[in-house]
Amino acid sequence: MGAVDNTLGLYLSVPFCKAKCTFCNFASDAYPPERMAAYVDQVVSEVASSHDFAAKHGLAVPSQVDSIFLGGGTPSLLEPAQMKALFRSLRAGFEVIKSAEITVEAAPGQISDALLDALLASGVNRISLGVQSFVDTESRAVGRSHTGSSCLLELERLRAAGVRDLNVDLIAGLPHQTIASWAQSLQQAINSGVDHVSVYMLEVDEDSRLGRELIGPGVRYGANAAPTESLVADLYAQACEALNGAGLAQYEISNFARPGHASRHNLKYWTRAPYLGFGLDAHSMLLDAVTGGAVRFANADDLDGYMNTADAVDVERVDALEAWEESIFLGLRLIDGVSIPTLQRDYPPAWVDAMVETSRTLADSGLMSVTQDRVALTQAGRIVSSSIFGELLAGEPVAV
């Protein structure tokens, strides 16, 4: 029931944005520089105390780090000295192997020359650009300041500077998006030569400005121009066909990569391998040093709460039933699906048999594939994956 990997991933949350996108409901926002400086100091302190925290709670920390990911927000808004301070703290507290994948998320046009130098000096070898769309009308509609041409120039600049791996984030379902405009974004991503593309189907809720407007309704943030759910599904299918056809093979519901360029860090989440998160709303999963069972904990999701060091972190031992659920809904995000023999090794046979039986029923509807050794979602199933996960886990087995 434990993780399949005994190396550690590190995640740093940098919750600062130049401006908040209309669809965003993450724990991020535009903050003044003095808050950013204090935040970096707090994260550095958290990193320094992380081994003491693990020992206090009886958690095993793998000895080597093979992936680091700075996400946000927009980490590229940090000053070069702040970025270097974060990486110094990580390398002081952990053994980062030479071949580690080190990723930083960035907004196009917001990586200064000085910051790029700091990133390269800190060992960053992968940058993920939040392009979202190469079509200017779509970008403007959700509050993005870049243009399609500026994104392409940024990719060329980063590649010329020696960044080994580049990812582009795209969103299917933005206001004003059509089959034709989406094809343009996809082709631009392909033509750019990046080795990794992430495609997210737009999900909005009442915690975002666009979501409130959709419920409202209203027109200020483009809710009246947002594609229908059926069109978003068509856009997703269009992306799968275009990217797979261009050699960017889909390996997870939202991710496509050329051979050897899958995100090592994100794979830790889906395979339930150990990772430690630092900063606002950062989540972690380690193993109990005695039982080997998974243990999850998370930081506060509001800035004031995180900056208050007196706030306790809630540490939760994952029981067998919770581990089973995670193995299903995380493992099935992967295109390869989950291994039946591995499930049989880790969980009661009755649980596995019931899940496989339900999977066969879903396979009759074209939503899953079932072989002797594996169960996986089909492309049609990936579009409605949340519903399928619910059906597979309905009528939960009795915990053991």
UniProtKB/TrEMBL annotation:
It comes from the Bacteria. Gene3D superfamilies: Aldolase class I. The keyword Transmembrane does not apply. Keywords: 4Fe-4S, Chaperone, Cytoplasm, Heme, Iron, Iron-sulfur, Metal-binding, S-adenosyl-L-methionine. Residues 2-246 form the Radical SAM core domain. InterPro entries: Aldolase_TIM (IPR013785), Coproporphyrinogen-III_oxidase (IPR034505), Elp3/MiaA/NifB-like_rSAM (IPR006638), HemN_C (IPR010723), HemW-like (IPR004559), rSAM (IPR007197), rSAM_sf (IPR058240). One of its GO terms (cellular component) is cytoplasm. Its cofactor is [4Fe-4S] cluster. GO terms for molecular function: 4 iron, 4 sulfur cluster binding; coproporphyrinogen oxidase activity; metal ion binding. SMART domains: Elp3. It is found in: Cytoplasm. Its main location: cytoplasm. It holds the Pfam family Radical_SAM. The keyword Plastid does not apply. PROSITE patterns: RADICAL_SAM. GO terms for biological process: porphyrin-containing compound biosynthetic process. NCBIfam families: hemN_rel. Probably acts as a heme chaperone, transferring heme to an unknown acceptor. Binds one molecule of heme per monomer, possibly covalently. Binds 1 [4Fe-4S] cluster. The cluster is coordinated with 3 cysteines and an exchangeable S-adenosyl-L-methionine. PANTHER family: COPROPORPHYRINIGEN III OXIDASE, RADICAL S-ADENOSYL METHIONINE DOMAIN-CONTAINING PROTEIN 1, MITOCHONDRIAL. Belongs to the anaerobic coproporphyrinogen-III oxidase family. HemW subfamily. This is Heme chaperone HemW. It comes from Terriglobus roseus.
